[in-house]
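Table S2 (continued). Query chain:
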Amino acid sequence: MTDLQFAATIREETTGGSMDTDLADLPPAGTVRWVASRKAQVVNAIASGLLTLEQACTRYDLSIEEIEAWRELANHYGTSALRTTRLKEYRPAAITTRIERRGRKPRLATNKS
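Corresponding output:
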């Protein structure tokens, strides 16, 4: 799948196909709560050329690996794979291992009782 096809697929899933996306439509800089729709917006912005990967990393204080993991998940499984409650279902073991090697624990949703 090319980047343009990928962007069109993500755009369709997140905006109903609207081409009128600009920086004002993206999550605000410094966002810390990443729901699936926000992740998809950032992945779409990068794939469509609205943001570069480096700009997205700086704007949102994220690592390249984290954004690339979002892109891989969305590309292979669709935007539903970006939900944290589905990480175990969709996230390949290689991505989890790569994050753990960097000294970070994968962010998983926990049920607080």
